[in-house]
Amino acid sequence: MSLTPALRSLQRKLERFYALEEAPDVSDFVRLCEAPARETLLVRESADELELALVLPANAANDDGYLQLVEGVSHFVYLAERARTNLPATRLELELQAEVDKFVVLAGASAALTRRRARSLHERLYARVRFLHDAGTEDGDRYRLANELAARFVARICDHAEPTLPRGALRRFYRSGQAEKIRLARAA
């Protein structure tokens, strides 16, 4: 099964939702891996070049596999946009934005986003999670903080859920740097 159509679709959804210029086709940067390997964005930066490779699980048939695709595409699109606009990006920003983008992609798939559905999705994405990295490690703490901040920010979105997502607030969050993203999430 080719992941190319799904990856392109996810990329275009995010670019349209956030009103971004089209980035290079994510599928041109994908390298497939076998389980139990997880989604990883490899980055090498030099003075005038940014090299990317997106490592994705070959089998994305289950929910976790699909969410890894969303996360990988989110990382790719975010980093491409930050490079295009000549803005920095941190690992925490990438993780935090990907956590929010999972909600955007899954909520956007519904024709009607009710408060009940939004809260159910919030529970699934932010409360019923398990972390692969231990608390107290750099990776473990970063993933936990990204999850906590995204949960707070998205909870505010859920409280005001209407038939469509509030694009203005989500686009503002997307375009913010790390400090502003944290401030917006903690203000919730």
Describe the structure.
The protein is mainly α. It has helices at 4-17, 63-84, 91-108, 115-127, 138-159, 167-175, 178-186, and strands spanning 30-33, 40-46, 49-57. A three-stranded mixed beta sheet has the order 1-3-2, with helices on one face. Helix 3 (91-108) runs parallel beside helix 5. The longest helix is centred in the middle third of the chain and has 22 residues, at 63-84. It is globular and about 40 Å long.
Keywords:
188 residues, mainly alpha, three-stranded mixed beta sheet, 11% strand, globular
**What is the helix/strand order?**
HEEEHHHHHH
Radius of gyration: 16 Å
Mean pLDDT over all positions: 91
Q: How far apart are the first and last residues' alpha carbons, in Å?
A: 41 Å
Summarize the main sheet: 3 strands, mixed
- Structural class label: mainly alpha
Spans of at least 5 consecutive residues with low confidence: none
Overall morphology: globular
Strand content: 5-15%
Order of strands across the main sheet = 1-3-2
Number of strands: 3
Helix content: 55-70%
Sequence-ordered SSE layout with sheet pairings:
Layout: H1 4-17, E1 30-33, E2 40-46, E3 49-57, H2 63-84, H3 91-108, H4 115-127, H5 138-159, H6 167-175, H7 178-186
Helix pairs in contact: 1-2, 2-3, 3-4, 3-5, 4-5, 5-7
Task: Describe the structure concisely.
The protein is mainly alpha-helical and 188 residues long. The chain has 7 helices and 3 strands; from the N terminus they run H-E-E-E-H-H-H-H-H-H.
